[in-house]
């Protein structure tokens, strides 16, 4: 897993691009908006997003359960199903519930087990790509649905989320995979340095 391609191009959205993308998504019809917001706020893979059902949305607990589609095996070598639960913003959940009738769908076993979006992975990819371009994100390696996942990881690391917690949120089997996000660069690294400088300034004033 890499944050840059062989030519040195970013494979993630930086903080400014994430904000631009989110703003653009919020101008879209409900289905497209919630699809993009879910990728933004959970860092899940597009294929994982399309498996989310109303039954996996905890409106009162403020969280979403996502089934990890990466293969996992138990001690005997048999495949096992792994779910991870992510906390999400309450206003996002309100939008999701209003747009898709989550609370009402949860009252029916059949509806609660159906995919919220009910579209193909290719169609979801086209929706995200279109919104990125409309939002003014340059068309390149960083303009793709999969880079939202990397952007989520870097944003979490920059804001001090412990790596073991981020590992859980992203569904990584190994902490070494998650550690790639601690190696933040560019504007993200500058944000980390700014914190250090700010603390240094305080220490200098106290010393003076």
TrEMBL record:
Gene Ontology terms: biological process: DNA integration; DNA recombination
Family, per entry: Belongs to the 'phage' integrase family.
Alphabetical list of PANTHER family matching this protein: INTEGRASE_RECOMBINASE PROTEIN MJ0367-RELATED, PHAGE INTEGRASE-RELATED
Example of a GO MF term: DNA binding
Name of the protein: Integrase
Pfam families per record: Phage_integrase
Ranges of residues in domain Tyr recombinase: 8-194
Keywords, in A-Z order: DNA integration, DNA recombination, DNA-binding
Classification via Gene3D superfamilies: Intergrase catalytic core (1.10.443.10)
